[in-house]
Amino acid sequence: MQQTMKSTKFLTVSTLVKISILSAIGYILMFISVPLPMLFPEFLKIDISDLTALLGGISLGPMAGVTIAFLKNLLQFITGMSTTGGVGEFANFLIGGSFVFTVSYIYSKKRNIQGVIIGLVSGIVVMTMVGCIANYFIILPFYATIGWSIDAVVSMGAAINPAIDSKMSFIIWMIAPFNILKSGLMSLLTLPMYKKTEKILK
Cα separation of 163 and 107, whole Å? Predict the structure, then answer.
């Protein structure tokens, strides 16, 4: 009984250490972002910082993955690197966390390659939907409060895609494809890495 309690305690401490390390790596990856000016406005930049949360979620469970997604954004905020007063970090956690939770939860129920693929495809759909909703109701209205009018954002999108003429069309033609591309990229990186990462973290 005592040995079981010690093993449980060790496992808990071990998991917390792994979560901390993956959160720190995710925080560092947030500084590596790439704009795609031919496809999206400059403020939409691709990064893979949620990859550590995704791999952590697959290996350690959905709650661990969501915790990593939260902590990396918290680190961004408390270290003074936020340029949006925490709104961007909250949105990043909401959008990225939805992807991480969906993938890792489905994988926890079906722990094989089929489960990973189903999880990733479902995660792409969920992240895209959450990203559209979050941008429509949170992110774009916030930009309007700091001097970026909705019309200005729409104009930035229209310069790339003439079909954009409103906030809704910006969401459809910019935000949705952006989140599909970002989550798709992380999915492609996850497939060759998740088994090796799972063995290491276990």
Answer: 38
Residue type, 65: G
Q: Which of 14, 43, 48 is nearest to 28 (CA)?
A: 48
- Is pTM, for the whole model, over 0.85? yes
Sign of the torsion formed by the C-alpha atoms of 97, 100, 101 and 102? positive
d(CA 113, CA 121): 12
- What DSSP string describes 110-143? S-SHHHHHHHHHHHHHHHHHHHHHHIIIIIHHHH
**Measured distance CA(120)–CA(140) in Å, rounded:** 27
Residue 5 scores a pLDDT above 60 = no
CA atoms of 38 and 58, how far apart (whole Å): 34
- What span, in angstroms and rounded, lies between the C-alpha atoms of 125 and 184? 10
Q: Please list the residues that pair with 35 across neighbouring strands.
A: 45
Q: Which residue has the tokens 């949705």?
A: 176
- The 3-state DSSP composition of the chain as helix, strand, coil percent (nearest 5) reads 75, 0, 20
